[in-house]
Here is the input.
Amino acid sequence: MKLTVNGETRTVDAEPDTPLLWALRDDLDLTGTKYGCGIAQCGACTVHLDGQAVRSCQATVALAEGREITTIEGLGGADAPHPVQAAWIEKQVAQCGYCQSGQMMQAAWLLEINPDPSDADIDRAMAGNLCRCGTYPLIREAVKLAAAKMRGA
Amino acid sequence: MSLAGTIARRTFLIASTAIAGGVAFGVYAVKKPHPNPLLNDLAEGEAAFNPWVKITSHAIILVTPHTDLGQGARSVQAALIAEELDLEWGQFEVSAGEPAAAYYNSALGEENAPYLSTDDSFAASATRTAMAAVFKLLAPQVTGGSSTVPDSFLRLREAGATARETLKKAASRKTGVPAAELSTAAGNVVLPDGSRIPYTELAAEAAKLAPVQGAKLREPNEWRLIGKPMQRLDIVAKSTGALKYGIDLRFDGMVYAAVRTNPRQGGELLSYDAAAAEAMPGVRKVVAVKNGVAVIATSTWRAFKAVDAIECEWGPAPYPAEMRAHWDAVSNSFTEEFLDKVWRDEGDVEAALAGEILEAEYRAPYLAHQPLEPLSAIVKVSDDGVDIWVGHQVPGYAEQRVAAIAGVDVENVHLHNQYVGGSFGHRLEFENVDRAAEIAVQMKGVPVKLTYTREEDFLHDFPRQIAMSRGRGAVKDGRIEALDLSIASVSSSDSQSSRLGQTVPGPDNQIPAGAWTAPYAIPNFRVSAYKTPPLAPTSSWRSVGASTGGFFADCFLDELIHAAGADALEARIAMCKFDVPRKVLEAVGEMSNWGADLGPGRGRGVAYVESFGVPVAEVVDVSVIDDRIRVDRVFVAADVGRIVDPINFDNHVKGAVVWGLGHAINCEITYSDGMAQQTNYHAFEGMRIYNCPEIIVRGLETAEKIRGIGEPPVPPAAPALANAIFAATGKRLREMPFNKFVKFI
Here is the structure.
């Protein structure tokens, strides 16, 4: 099957009902997208599908075929970080860091649809992203910093 | 966290005999350094000054043997070396190194001597010294027990200073300028005329020299890095999805495995039928492992699907099948027969409790670790040995186990320690490493990546100890007259050591942890520990015994203070016998503006617990909104003696508070039909962002010894919350999780 990931067309050897998560990780070596729970309870596998944040453990490759898939690697990198990533770096949000790809993908989507989120907006949008290390206070700060960066403040 | 404790108890027995004169180690054996593992594969022209610093013609490599579990261990270890070696951030590479005796944990021995941290008597000091010596001889390389900074603070700075002085000597030989006239800066030796020689250009010359010993360490006012905000070495990679955790690695020809073992921990596999699984796409092989089966396939997902399709018949659990029986066993162990030790006995408790008394019983459930990176391991068995890629807290032990499974000498087993997506004590255990090795010996020559499903991980987690306490107390004239606290618990240390094939006689200091260390002068004060016979297998869970003992002791103390009609914080301060804990309590009072009127529908509680030698006080504010509790704010004061990285310190305290509160609010592991009933995060949620309070942290630096912060803020969180809910609602919560009794927002 062919997938469009981070602007490139890639071929994956996977049955149509394979979760997108595993095609990204095992076939394409895009390991920034993490396996945490497999049942949409943790958000570590969050990617963008046609600009919408989705749990890649629930989206099959059949569903993803023909759509634009963006992973954390496509959001930005060390040389040109997305404002959300830049805010995560500046605030030093990560402890173990395992959930943070998903947190950042969720936050980037939030800021696309709501450039100036309130605390309640952030809590609502980020509710499905679990962090076992408890970095939530810094996630809130980083989302606000990213929002300010994106608004050019 | 304590496999640490297990090793320490064994150490204590040998150390006690040593003090009594029964065992002579010989000063030579204790003083003699362990061999430097960096010398094993040193090339011509490369210098390894000690086990932590290696310099080649093109690279400066700092070895950071404490496993990075997400606590920033690699950064903090590197900073300590770089401070003395005059390196700038980005000038060096960091390596986890090979497991080796040289990296034995020098802090855990002392820390686990069964004396109060405030006790500086001869017996306490002598035992600490002897334990440190035995620890060195046993040489366990352990990350745990909040000991990374205490273990590293002196010796990694010494390692940096040794390398610095040796490089200066090399530069002196090369230039003829006396070493005393040379200085160092940013990875260079600086000559009197200001010209610079990079360390890398001095490696070959330095390699010919014996390392200069006894180098003088910098004074605190000269520090460039310690105590200053620094950017963690992993922060950019972790913020861009680029960091490779153990679960992310891939090798040429690698196959993917999944495992299913008896969901009744330790129970046997009676029979299985893998016909359907073997016919599924991508399945290469189905193999037996201990108490279960594994599928080897061409992708993780195919392995997951196939292993799930195997029909298995499981044997019974080697512990009571139903939860009720677990609680009954704990409840029935408050008897002379199970008394492990009376840890504290001041005054005459029985006499003081002859009149009117207050009694209360508390409970704390089993709790899973469940870091977000599931268990995984990559193992390759080849003709000349075995390679393991995994993040592990006791890497040397993991090598020994794999050597036994593969039937090879441990010298030929190499564990490559990886960055880890959280642990909280989970990676002190060996399930993933053992199973991956069992599979890999059946796939010789091929790297095998085993990934646990979240469900398999939950079912084979070794939870925190289940525990209960019974308190009796008396108050008189506005003060606590007597406090008699009995704690009964299974021994997580014993359970851990049994899986290592060892028994540890003697009392378990984790059962009364967080309770017997209370810094209070109470005229009649007793803390007794009862050891419940083994039930479900348990392990060290972030802060270990103090997570249950601290809850029991501080909440019951709060009940007595209330009964005495005293103020919760002022009474604690008034009873406090020692300066450092008192300062911590006073600090949290000042931060929270204790005593201020909070307004209607709100409540505030305080708790103080010492664990791993660190005094921590927390104040929790709650609101009651439509019969539901909202946790508004938490104030935390802690004293670790010296804060190495203030940013990381702040993050860790906040994370530990979230850990303590989240699990106290809504988590427990219960057993039915011998199986854990919670198998994913929907049933074991912990804290989410919308119930995370604002957390305000103050780190004090008045304590004499430097200590770690990874665990100590956990234990006070639950009792402070329970005490706050009492203040707001009048309802005492004596059992975790609290959501069984009150609703939360």
Summary: The domain at 323-367+463-744 of chain B is CATH 3.30.365.10 (Aldehyde Oxidoreductase; domain 4). Chain B has a mean pLDDT of 94.
